[in-house]
Amino acid sequence: METKEQILNNALNMFAKSGYTAVSIRDIAKTVNIKESSIYYHFRNKQDILDSLVDKYESHIKELTNMLQAAMPDTDSMRPFSWDWLRKYYFEQYLFDTFCNQMMRFLMIEQFHNENMRSLYEHYLFDLPRKIQTGAFMMLTQFGIMNEQQAEESGNAFFSKMTTLTFQYLLNGELTQAKKDAFCEEAFAYIDRIF
After folding, report:
1. Residue 48, CB half-sphere, CA atoms under 13 Å: how many?
2. Which of the four pLDDT bands, split at 50, 70 and 90, describes residue 191?
3. What share of the chain is helix, strand, coil (3-state, %, to 5)?
4. Is the pLDDT score of 76 beyond 70?
5. Quick check: 170 and 180 in contact, CB under 8 A?
6. What are the Cα distances from residue 45, in Å, to 3, 4, 63?
7. Mean pLDDT of all residues in 18-41
8. How far, in Å, CA of 39 to CA of 42, rounded?
9. What are the contacts of 146-152 at 24+ separation with CB within 8 A?
10. How far apart, in whole angstroms, are the C-alpha atoms of residue 105 and residue 96?
11. Are 180 and 169 in contact (CB under 8 A)?
């Protein structure tokens, strides 16, 4: 792994545990095992590290959103309806992804200290997931599985359930395989109940 990536990964790990203000450039350099001055070869300052992390997160989310939308079945495709895309793109590549999980934890901490981070917290932990999840249920109207009112109500209920499970299993203590498995089990049991 390149030094720049190590700096970003280690900084995020510390930010996600302690918050932005509690971590110094010296702390980051120590965990990467480099001199403090070496960080300035890659980043102007600590804010530049934060900005780079946010840019990387936003880029990852945009890419995943595009892949997710492409993976959703539509009425013109010959693919039968399936929830596999949910596990592959939303669970595996977002909620369970170490980088994304740490960014969510970091946003949870920093929402209280930084207006921009609070805005990102609301967007990426609530607004965008709600839009994607309710959009998936609206897509079911194209298949005749439910009407628009049912889709909207089901989408909002599903969003509430996924948010609860995310906070219960994925943003609470260490992210383990057992927690990921429990999250999936409850999420798919919920999907089975509503269909």
Report:
1. 10
2. confident
3. 75, 0, 25
4. no
5. yes
6. 15, 13, 27
7. 96
8. 5
9. none
10. 12
11. yes
pLDDT tens figures, 134-159: 888 888 788 788 899 998 999 999 99
Which has the closest alpha carbon to 49: 13, 89, 83?
13
Residue 6, classified by CB atoms within 10 Å of its CB into exposed (0-12), middle (13-18) or buried (19+), is middle
Nearest to 175 by CA among 110, 62, 92: 92
Element (H, E) at 115: helix 115-122
Specify whether the CB–CB gap between 121 and 110 falls below 8 A: yes
Q: pTM of the prediction?
A: 0.88
Instruction: Give residue 44's identity as a one-letter amino acid code.
Output: R
Report d(CA 71, CA 77) in Å as an integer: 11
DSSP 81: P
Helix (H) or strand (E) run with residue 110 in it: helix 98-110
* CB atoms closer than 10 angstroms to residue 137: 22
Q: Which residue type does 120 have?
A: L
Predicted confidence (pLDDT) per residue in 54-66, tens digit:
999 999 999 988 8
From CA 49, how far away is CA 29, in angstroms rounded? 12
